[in-house]
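Example 184, ligand adenosine-5'-diphosphate.
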Amino acid sequence: MQQIKSFLNNRIEVCIGDITTLSIDAIVNAANSSLLGGGGVDGAIHRAAGPSLLEECRQLRSSHYPNGLSTGEAVITKAGNLPSKHVIHTVGPIYNPNDPAMPELLASCYTTSLTLAAEHKLTVVAFPAVSTGVYGYPKSKAANIASDAVIAFLKKNAFPQKVIFVFFKTKDADIFLDNAGFPQ
Ligand code: ADP
């Protein structure tokens, strides 16, 4: 994992690497509403976590979310074989340029995930770029929404102490930094 920038007295870091390798309190999964795995970062997380994560997600489905998790919501589980202690699963919006609710739904992914982290007194939480892969959210727009939501939350809350934005590709981290609303 390569750290490229930090902001807000080091409470925000921007890194390049594979989110599944982080030994922290929680990594966020860009899940789909089924909670039963998928492609992209979701597939990578389930592959690295092993069958116990899928089993916990199946149980959550039958106990709390028979119809799946709604867009913009988040749930926390253990992390199976991952070095991270927990996984926070959130469902990003599938991008639709004609739907005015898009920014609010994407912001909600970050805010509800951070609310869970705060409730569990987690110190360090890492996010992938939710919705910007298969779900097609423009990376520049998503950068602005994600950074604003995280800054607003951290300013109001002591936990989590640190949020890491993780990008798989250097180019994606560059687009994020060019469009994020971080104070210079
Ligand atoms: P979504 O379905 O929400 O769009 P994706 O998993 O398709 O989610 O993509 C979200 C982002 O996660 C993409 O920018 C993709 O490059 C990135 N990504 C994929 N695998 C990893 C990984 N192992 N670690 C960090 N980021 C990843």
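Summary: Residues 18-20, 30, 40-42, 44, 92, 128-135, 166, 168, 172 surround adenosine-5'-diphosphate (CB under 6 Å).
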